[in-house]
Amino acid sequence: MNRKLPTWKKLTGIALGLLLAADIGLGVFLWQSYREGPESMSAQRDLLATQAKLLAADVARGEQIRASLPQIGDDCDRFYRQWFLDGASGYSAIETDLAAIARKAGVKTSGFTFKQEEVKGRGVTQVLITTGVDADYPAVLEFINGLEHSKNFYLLGDLRLDSVTTGGIRLDLELHAYFRT
Amino acid sequence: MKLRLNLSSAPQENNRPFLLAAAVAGTLSLLALAILAHAAVRSWQANRSLRADTAHWEQEIRANRQRQQALKIYFQSPPARRVLDRAAFLNSLIGERSFPWTKIFMDLEQTLPAGVRIVKISPRLVSGRAEVELEVGAASDEGKIQFLEAIEKSKVFSGLQVKQERHIDQSGSSDRVMFTLSVWYTIAWS
Predict the structure, then answer these.
(1) I want to staple B122 with a disulfide (CB 3.0 to 4.6 A). Which of A144, B33, B64, B133 is the partner?
(2) What is the Cα–Cα distance from B136 to B133, expressed in whole angstroms?
(3) Nearest 5°: phi and psi at A177?
(4) pLDDT tens profile A29-69
């Protein structure tokens, strides 16, 4: 039996087929979208946003430091001039200053020994000063306080205390001073 | 008399089932198409916004990485390096100088029981905190324990570690026990 489908039926079938194909196409698109997951995309976006903000803050801080670098350089120069003694007259200035601090505190020093060492690349020479003082406890404290508040830059290192037969204290100390080079 | 005769060569076909099925299938397909299209548009819109945001942040990161690289090159240049090294050196000296020697003596004075004395003090600045090594002499074990308890209870000293201890049998010395310890000292920066 040779029955041919009428044209309108063919057209109806084609139209229905196209509709079904469109449904399947959209279904596949949606499935892929959900598989990628808006949540994971959103999480990825948030992670990138956090990274970008941290990086921006880091860059802003770096640019701030770069902008202030000339000022920092000037401050360093001023500090060197103000606090570090000139190498040419440093020793006499230190001796005078330490003697004045000791006199004011009422302590007796056993003299000073100096050891000079250049600090490479820093533009300064470090002078290690060792001394010992004999006095009672308040005077020793007064001497330390004087060193701490001197107009010269001293760094106190190790302090060694010992009681002496006269009833006072013997303080052996190391301190560092710096000369401009 | 009238006779109803069908004289066509092919019998008339009943199209109703086809039409019904096509109508049902068409309606369902159209309905599904509408629902899926709506969902697809919404999903595409939502993802488009996310993709745009992601691209925006990626672009920001790329731009800031370039600026960061430029800064890195600048800070590694000899003039910048010189200033930064100098500033770090001075800051370390200033940090060391700010150690409050007079105050630590006064604080130690409050913790020292009778018969205990400080022999040596060596401070060291570690990340802005002062670690102080103390060498202490005590006339008795009781005095030593009282001192350690006082340090442990102190508000300015913390993280006590006793490192070494030795007993002295010499008759001329007032100290019977010498011990070395390290403590963190809280500096009240003004």
Answers:
(1) B133
(2) 10
(3) -125, 165
(4) 888 887 777 778 888 889 999 999 999 999 999 999 999 99
Q: Which of A76, A122, A178 sits opposite B83 (nearest CB)?
A: A76
* Token pair 């992601």: residue: B54
Q: How far is CA B91 from CA A86, A180, B44, B84, B96, in A?
A: 20, 17, 57, 10, 9
Q: How far apart are CA B20 and CA B17, in angstroms?
A: 5
Closest by CA position to B39, among listed A39, A31, A19, A21: A31
Residue written as tokens 């007993």?
Answer: B167
CA distance A64 to chain B (A): 11
Report residue B174: phi and psi, to 5°.
-80, -20
Q: If you ran DSSP here, which 8-state letter would residue A111 be given? A: E
Instruction: Find all residues with CB under 8 Å of A83, minimum gap 6, and list them.
Output: A152, A153, A178
Which of A98, A100, A88, A107 has the alpha carbon at shortest distance from A169?
A: A107
Q: What is the mean pLDDT of chain B?
A: 86
Residue pairs spanning A and B at CB distance below 8 A: 148
Helix A137-148 / helix A90-105 crossing angle, nearest 10 deg: 140
Tokens of B92: 């370390």
Which amino acid is present at A126?
Answer: Q
What is the predicted pLDDT for the residue at A118?
Answer: 85
The ipTM is 0.70
Mean pLDDT of A144-160: 87
Closest residue to B101, CB basis, from A44, A144, A178? A144
The residue of chain A with its CA nearest to that of B65 is A55
Q: Which helix (H) or strand (E) holds B162?
A: strand B157-167
Asked whether the beta carbons of residue A163 and residue B117 sit closer than 8 angstroms, the reply is yes
**A154: phi then psi, degrees, rounded to nearest 5:** -115, 140
Identity of the amino acid at A51: Q
The model's confidence at residue A123, banded by pLDDT at 50, 70 and 90, is: confident
Answer with the residue of higher pLDDT: A86 or B64.
Answer: B64
Q: What's the CA angle centered on A107, arms A105 and A109, to 5 degrees?
A: 130
